[in-house]
Design goal:
The protein is an alpha/beta fold. The chain contains twelve helices and 13 strands. The longest helix has 18 residues.
Length: 328
């Protein structure tokens, strides 16, 4: 039986009734996924529940200093004995079961904690709230429901989640609820200035060099409304960069006055192109991503296209341009 709820109680009850939890999130982790995973790890520890945090991909360099980040195991596959040593999976910020890129997660019951509109409710317990500004805010509500006061480290990780998923409190999901949670997390010991420093002033040199490579490919189309740019394997080699160094590079063209939609195409392995999409206002990039098997939020989504970079960029750019032409 699958339960779908907007409040944390049933998820908390299920987490308490377990011995060891595998915590994971989507591939190519970001601030909301990693901050939420680490906060959940502390909550479980405080509840006396053993846990393992495992992601398929490494964390971006600018998130490596999050408290507890060193406990995250990075592995291309689940441990062979995971179904024997764990008895529950907690999946964070994953709209479907395939997002972590780890096959076999469904061998155990799943607690699904997410705020995406298109979540497929794949868990035994699905704690879903599409009105939440970030999964980190939902983690804060789990702490409140458990009557556990988070450490300053956990409060900081939840603040990172909230700050990154609201674009430093600039995106449309920056609601009064987001600001209230930010204040409460600050009271609990989060340091907003320190968080801002980690997010914006701790980039790797390779990431900055990769941004230069990407901006060299920038096109601004549709009378300044659409920006597209890309990085190919040669750009990664020249910059000495890794896939995680692409995190948040899309913010640069998004800041151009008049740009409403940005598409960032990334290829680091043959035949596979990752696409990040961002928009402003009512343009729903989630629907575009869904056409290519992806998903996300109205103003921030992504997808993976099988094929070569040039054709993926050409075809998706034409699709976005046509949709923009239909808008008033």
């Amino acid at each position: 039986m699958s339960v779908v709820v907007r409040e944390p109680g049933p998820a908390l009850d299920r987490l308490r009734r377990t011995r060891r939890v595998l915590i994971t999130s989507h591939s190519n982790p970001d601030g909301d996924s990693l901050g939420s995973e680490l906060a959940l790890a502390e909550l479980l520890q405080r509840l006396g529940v053993e846990h393992l945090v495992l992601n398929r991909d490494p964390s971006p360099a600018n998130l490596a200093m999050l408290p507890g980040a060193g406990q995250v195991v990075v592995a291309a596959a689940l441990p062979a004995d995971f179904a024997e040593v764990c008895d529950l999976v907690a999946m964070v910020e994953c709209p479907d079961i395939d997002r972590p890129g780890l096959g076999g997660l469904d061998r155990l019951p799943i607690v699904n904690i997410d705020h995406h509109k298109a979540n497929t409710c794949y868990g035994e317990v699905n704690y879903l709230d599409e009105e939440s500004p970030a999964v980190g805010e939902m983690m804060w509500r789990l702490f409140l429901a458990a009557e556990v006061v988070p450490s300053p480290a956990a409060a900081t990780n939840m603040f990172v989640a909230l700050s990154t998923d609201t674009g430093d409190f600039r995106y449309p999901n920056t609601t009064a609820r987001a600001f209230r949670t930010a204040a409460e997390l600050t009271d609990a010991g989060a340091d907003p200035a320190q968080v801002a420093g980690w997010i914006h002033e701790c980039r790797s040199e390779a990431s900055v060099r990769l941004l230069g490579e990407a901006l060299a490919t920038l096109e601004v189309l549709d009378h300044g409304r659409l920006a597209v740019f890309s990085v190919d394997p040669a750009a990664f080699r020249r910059a000495g960069a890794r896939p995680e160094d692409t995190e948040d590079l899309i913010a640069a063209p998004r800041a151009i006055a008049g740009v409403e939609v940005v598409a960032f195409f990334k290829q680091w392995e043959p035949g596979v192109v990752r696409v990040s999409l961002r928009s402003k206002g009512s343009f729903d990039v989630r629907l575009v991503a869904a056409d290519y098997g992806g998903g996300g939020h109205t103003n921030a989504s992504g997808c993976t296209i099988r094929g070569e970079l040039a054709s993926a960029r050409r075809d998706l750019t034409a699709r976005l341009s046509a949709l923009l032409d239909e808008e008033p």
